[in-house]
Backbone:
């Protein structure tokens, strides 16, 4: 079974910078796995943030950036705001289908 | 603007089937795939598969093959997800999502499917 792993939880101070990562159990994450990132707040559907590694959706603030970091995909939030407190999910295209990570709960404190 | 509007909540008994609709607007229906994702209460996201509205081609993960079917009505710009032989662990919010060129972009509002006797 293919597994995508994210940090279960992270805490960041307002105005700070935090990096979330997304790893694959079957090998290094590359641009060919087309990493996507999503934000979900309680009681709401997810909102798409980043597609194909580093491309922001048209509505995504510039403080969100995507990249590859070693053998993982990464989502970096700079100048974190209290409103960024949410669950964050990544998705990778693996073996012909999307596999979602388990999500990272980001606390802004 | 792009919108995906899903049908309302459903309550089904174990063993029954459920069919959820997803009406799209704001883009050319046949130009973009639609992915289905579900989220059990308090859990993460799970991919159910993908349909190409242009030709009806589908792609299902192994763990749902034979139990889920996607279809589309091009005249109504609507895609459908049918899940059969329902179990209690199928209780979840089901989402349709616009999926084109490896970009998962616009999400429907979600449909709560509850399976309970």
Residues:
């Amino acid at each position: 079974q293919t597994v995508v792993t994210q940090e279960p939880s992270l805490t960041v101070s307002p105005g700070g910078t935090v990096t979330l990562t997304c790893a694959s159990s079957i090998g290094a994450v590359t641009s060919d796995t087309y990493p996507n990132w999503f934000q979900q707040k309680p009681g709401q559907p997810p909102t798409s943030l980043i597609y194909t590694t580093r491309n922001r959706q048209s509505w995504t603030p510039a403080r969100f950036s995507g990249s590859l970091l070693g053998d993982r995909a990464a989502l970096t939030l700079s100048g974190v705001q209290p409103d960024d407190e949410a669950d964050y999910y990544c998705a990778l295209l693996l073996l012909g289908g999307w596999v979602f990570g388990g999500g990272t709960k980001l606390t802004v404190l | 603007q792009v919108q995906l509007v899903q049908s309302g909540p459903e309550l089904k008994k174990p063993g029954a089937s459920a069919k959820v609709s997803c009406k799209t607007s704001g883009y050319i229906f046949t130009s973009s795939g639609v992915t289905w994702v579900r989220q059990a209460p308090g859990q993460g996201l799970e991919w159910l598969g993908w349909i190409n509205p242009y030709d009806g081609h589908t792609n299902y993960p192994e763990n749902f093959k034979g139990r889920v079917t996607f279809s589309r009505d091009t005249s109504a710009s609507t895609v459908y997800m049918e899940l059969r032989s329902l179990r209690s662990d199928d209780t979840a919010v089901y989402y349709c999502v616009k999926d084109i060129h490896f970009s998962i972009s616009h999400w429907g509002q979600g449909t709560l499917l509850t399976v309970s006797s």
